[in-house]
Amino acid sequence: MQPSLECPICGVAAHLTCTRCKLVRYCNGEHQKQHWAKHKRCCKPFREEQNPELGRYLAATQDIQAKQIIFVEDPLVVGPKWFLTEHEKSATIVPCVGCYLPCRVDRHQCRNCRWPVCSAVCQHEDLECSILRLGNAASAKSDYRHDALLVLKCLLLQRSQAERWKALLEMQTHEEERRGTELQQEAEQRIVGYLQQRFLRHLKANKKHESLLNEYESELLHRLCGIIETNYMAIELATGVELSGLFRQACMMEHACQPNCYFQFDPATHRIMVRAGCDIKKGDHLKITYTNILWGTQLRQHHLRMTKHFSCRCPRCEDPTEYGSYVSAMRCLGDVSKTCAGVQLPLEPLNDQTQWKCDSCPMLVDAGYVTEVQTHMTEEVERLLASNPTASQVELLLARLSQLLHPNHFHMFNLKHTLIQLYGHEPGLELATLSDLQLGRKQRLCEELQDVCRRLDPHSIKLAIYVSVILLEIAHTMEEQSRRLPAEATTKLELARSHLLEAQEVLEKVQDSVAGKKLNDKLQQDLFDLDKLMLANSHHMQTVV
Question: CA-CA-CA-CA torsion for 531, 532, 538, 542, nearest 10 degrees?
Fold first, then answer.
C-alpha cells in the first residue's frame, strides 16, 4: 500500500499524516476524525510488500518500540492440531469436536454425527456436523482423525465465510515443492483419502447433499493441506490442548532465526496479538521463527525444508559460528593420538553436503560423518532425557559427549539446562546439601547457558522459558551463597532479586502458555520467599550493629 497524498474525505492535497501508519493524509483534524471509523480497521504501523524471493511479507512503516502491539487479528480458521505424534494418533483422549476440551473417545458423542464431545450438551457447527454425519458411525479411535477436521473446516469456509475463503486461497501453498514428498503422501493417506472416502464421496451419491459444498475435489484438498503446512500457527490452550490456526496477516511475517516479534493468543477467541520483541526501525521486516532456534543450522535447515519448503539465508545461518554461540560446532575430529584444541565448523553452512574444517589444523571431515555422529548423539540425549535422569547420569553423558562436541553444542546445552534444575532439587542434592564445588558448578553452568541464550536470542523472544529457568536457578544459587557467606548476604540477596525481576519481565512474553503460567506462579512464590529472607537479613544486620 502506497502513501496517499490526498484527503480521503474531500480529495484535496493534504499535509497532515496519520501518526500511526503514515499511509493516509488529511487536510484537517476534523476530516481525520470523520475517517477514523473506516481507517481504524487498516491503520497499522506496517505495510504488506512482496518480492520473488520472500513472497508476501510485512515491513514497518515507522519506528516501533519494544513491547508495542503491532496488530491484532482474528483467525481465518482454527482447528485441531495439524502434525500429530504417533502417540496422539492412537490416543483415547482427544479434543472435543465442539469446544476442544480433552474428552474420552468412548464417553460422549454428538447425537448427530457421533464424533466425540466433552458432554452430552456440547454442540459444534451445523454445516460441519452435516458433513461428518455422512460417514458411517466410527468403530475405533483411528476413525476419528482430528487433524483432518482442520482441512474440512477450511473447505467449509466456501459456504459460511466467502471473504475468508478467498483470503485463504491466496495464501502460499508450495504445491510444486510438496509434490511427491513424504508430506504429500501422508496427507493423501491420512487427510485427503480419509475425507473423500469417508464423507465427501457421499455428496455426489446423494443429490440432496450436493448443496452442502460446491468444491471438494482431491486437488483442492491437497492445496488446502499445502496452505496449512506452510502457514499454520500453533495455539496452546490452558488445558494443554494444541490447536492450529491460519491468519491472513500474521502468516505473512517472514522467518528469521533471530526474530524481532512475538505473538500471544486470546484463549477464548483465538485472536492473535503481535508485539515487537525489540525496538524495530522503519523499513525493517517483521520476523518470527518457524523452527527451534536452539537447534544447530543443519537441523534447522532440514526442518524448514521438510515442513515449510524453503531454506533460510539469515545472517545466523550464514555464520559458521552462529553469532559465536558454536551450537553446531564439534571438537576437532582428527587423529585421537594428537592433541588439537580446535573446533570443527562447516565451510559452507547453507550447504548440507559441505565439509567441516578444524579452525586450528588441516583436518577436514565429510558432512555424512558429522551427520552420522550427531544422529547417534541425538538418540542418546533424547533417550536419557526421556527417562527422568539423575544428576550423575546427566554428568556422565556430558563427560562422554564433551570428547566430540563443543561445550555450547545444542545437545550439551539441553543436558546442562537439565542439570542446573537437578542440582538443588533432586533428593539428596538440595541446595543446602550441595558442596561448595557443586554450588559453584551450578552457577558456572547457568552463566554458560545464559551466554548462549544472549547470543542466539538477545531479547529473549523465543527462549523466554529457558532464560527464565536459568535466571531462577541463578537466584536460588545466590540465596544459598548468602547463607554461607554472611558478610556478602545483602549483596547476594539483592542480586538474586534482580535476577528474579528480570525473569518476571521475560515471562511476560509467554503468559499465554501453560509452561509460562506455571513458571510465573513459581516465580511469584520465589519472590515472596526472597523478600522474607531479605527482611530477616536486614533485621539481623540491624541487630548486629
Answer: 160
Q: Binning pLDDT at 50, 70 and 90, where does residue 177 land?
A: confident
Q: Report the C-alpha gap between 72 and 63 in whole angstroms.
A: 18
User: Which residue type is seen at 137?
Assistant: A
**Which whole-number Å values give the CA distances from 173 to 202, 224, 496, in the listed order?**
27, 8, 49
Helix (H, G, I), strand (E, B) or coil at 184: helix
Q: Which is nearest to 476 in space by CA: 428, 439, 426?
A: 439
pLDDT for 134: 86
Task: For residue 343, count other CB atoms closer than 10 A to its CB.
Answer: 18
Q: How many CA atoms lie within 13 A of 362 on its CB side?
A: 0
Question: Nine-digit cell at 130?
Answer: 452435516
Alpha helices in 249-403 (DSSP H): 297-307, 315-318, 367-385, 391-401
* pTM flag (> 0.90): no
Res 1 pLDDT > 50: no
Could you give the 3-state DSSP secondary structure of residue 272?
strand
What gap in Å lies between CA 256 and CA 290, rounded to an integer? 8
- Backbone phi, then psi, for 516, in 5-degree steps? -65, -45
Percent of the chain with pLDDT over 90: 68
Write out pLDDT tens, residues 357-404: 999 999 999 999 999 999 999 999 999 999 999 999 999 999 999 999
β-strand partners of 116: 109
**Three cell numbers at 339?**
592433541
What confidence category does residue 3 fall into, taking pLDDT thresholds of 50, 70 and 90? low
Question: Cα(102)–Cα(84) distance, rounded to whole angstroms?
Answer: 15
Phi then psi for 357, rounded to 5 degrees?
-115, 140
pLDDT digits (tens, 9 = 90+) for 325-349: 999 999 998 876 677 889 999 999 9
Rounded CA-CA distance 265/238 in Å is 11
Within 200-296, residue ranges assigned H as helices are 201-205, 218-231
Which three cell numbers, joined as nine digits, stand for 372? 552420522
Instruction: Work out whether strand 254-255 and strand 287-288 pair parallel, antiparallel, or are unpaired.
Output: parallel
Q: How many CB atoms lie within 10 A of CB 464?
A: 26
339 vs 360: CA distance, rounded Å: 11
d(Cα 187, Cα 183) in Å, to the nearest integer?
A: 6
Tell me the CA distances in angstroms from 230 to 76, 117, 305, one per residue in order. Answer: 15, 29, 11
pLDDT at 305 over 50: yes
**Cα 151 to Cα 225: distance, rounded to the nearest angstrom:** 7
C-alpha torsion sign, points 369, 374, 380, 383? negative
Q: How many helices (H) and strands (E) does the chain have?
A: 19, 20
